[in-house]
Amino acid sequence: MRFGRWTFSMLLVVYLGLAAVPDGSPQDGRGKAEEEIRQLSAAEVEAFLKRDTAAMGRLWSDDFVVTNPLNQFVTKKQVLGMVDSGFLVIMSFDRQLDYLKVYGDTAIVAGRETVVWGGKMPNAGRTEHLRITAVWMRQQGRWLQVARHANVVPER
Predict the structure, then answer these.
(1) Which of 18, 42, 110, 150 could be 99's S-S partner, Cβ–Cβ 3.0 to 4.6 Å?
(2) Per-residue pLDDT tens for 98-129?
């Protein structure tokens, strides 16, 4: 079977036209989930700046765990305790998300943070740059963070 240029051109136009039509695919839901997670991530930054442990508690799953910049593996209860005690204080906090991918009811986030520590942190008053990875899951109908890893980027 031979196609002429005109036939080929028409098939190409039809194909490209169909490819551009939204199909209601799961991608639409992923876009909504990604935006929601970005908003929740920003709310987490605000909660740290305000030392609002109630807001943090609402963002994190009850089984939330984190490997923190002090190289400690801690639970939700321990992190909230560090904030309540005045040990974990963040005076300035900027978070940039470099990667966010939704896999059904799970999302992976990776990025970088610049923080100025306060309180009783070992580096209080210093600015540090962190690399982070966070895992969010849809639990009980809402997105909650279940795990986080943050490490200090060494100065060069």
Answers:
(1) 110
(2) 999 999 999 999 999 999 999 999 999 999 99
**Cα–chain-centroid distance for residue 105?**
14
> Which backbone phi and psi does 2 adopt, to 5 degrees?
-110, 135
Identify residue 2 by its one-letter amino acid code: R
CA proximity to 132, closest of 114, 119, 144: 114
- 26-152, which class in CATH? alpha beta
Contacts of 30 (CB under 8 A, 6+ apart): 102
Classify each residue of 138-154 as buried b or exposed e, where b means 16 or more C-beta atoms within 10 Å of its C-beta.
beeeebbbbbbbbebee
Q: Which residue type, as a one-letter code, is found at position 5?
A: R
Altogether, the residues listed in the chain come to a count of 156
Q: Domain spans of the chain?
A: 26-152
CA neighbor of 95 nearest in space, from 110, 77, 76, 73: 110
- CA separation for the pair 69, 77 (Å, rounded): 17
User: 119 in the Ramachandran plot: left (φ > 0), alpha (ψ -120 to 50) or beta?
Assistant: left
The pair phi, psi for residue 93, each rounded to 5°, is -150, 120
